[in-house]
Amino acid sequence: MRELKFFLFIIILSLLIGSVSVVGINQQNNIFLNADNNDFYFVQITDTHIKHKIFDLSESTTKKLNTVLNKINSFKKKPAFIVVTGDLCEWAGSDPTGALNCQAFISCFYENNGHFYADENFSIPVYTIPGNHEYTFDRSLGNYHNYIDSNHLETEDKYIINHGDLTLFFMNSGPNYYANPFDWFDIKGDGLYDKDISWLENSLNNCNSQHKIVLMHHPAINDRNENGEMHNVIARNRLEFIDLCENHNVDVVLTGHTHRSVIFDKYENKSYNPPINCSNCSTLYIQTDDCKQGIHYRNISIIGQDVWIEDNIEVNQTVLNIEQLEISENIHINISKKTFLNSLIMGQNKNQGLIL
Fold first, then answer.
1. Looking at residue 278, which CATH number applies to its domain?
2. Which of 128, 256, 139 is nearest to 193 (CA)?
3. Parent domain of 51
């Protein structure tokens, strides 16, 4: 009798797994959305470090940004929007040279009614936040506000975007942190002040969306050195920020700054192997690789009740033909079965860390 029950269990399990319809799998492990109109994805780009052609004779930085934008525009299913998480320019500041860099950055996009888009049809809006390279030594964001985003001065570059059942909280993690001389070489961000934490807490308390994502330039969690210290993270209110995200069920914190791709959970476990279903674990702290040395982007998909963190993709700067573009697009997954399968394989639990 036990053998019969076990045999039936194996059959049922096989049917469940077998019913997951994978239409196309590529080496990059992306997830592409099916025909459900309620599902969508957006793209994160970060650390583009654009320089004007006066300072970049080959215009390599703008060419890299245009390459990734062309790649994104080639997808059959277009993203809902694009986010660029800081260090948009090599330097922005408030002087004329930084102004030229900002102008070079916005030249890569289409402008309509004071907002930037990735396509000429104005269907893919672009949202930005400043990084430490947007600041001057006197902590000014003059050129960033004059040329890139003048809409959020009153809130000090904190703002909220809603799309479907997703709310995104954009936060400014500040210039380089100089308060402690011992941290000068750690490239920490000034961080979040008490008023920033209060703004986020109030915003989260008033948020009715099922999914919540916070975006800023500097990460809140990173590797520790031999002395147990974290470099390249926010200096102020780091632990308070993490507690706030955990207590309010934030799905993801998306950042750049480190010029690498890695995913941490709150326990500082890390993974380099997306896709990951965020619905099966606590808040994930994402670092996405830059668009300066390489050409990178990351898709984040909202599929059914789940948020999926996809792989950090590197794009070749050579012109791709249509077959290559189609091969490099994403996986089609049967949405009704993927959560079960992902939980079974990944061994994740909302109250546990990543099982790596």
1. 3.60.21.10
2. 139
3. 29-346
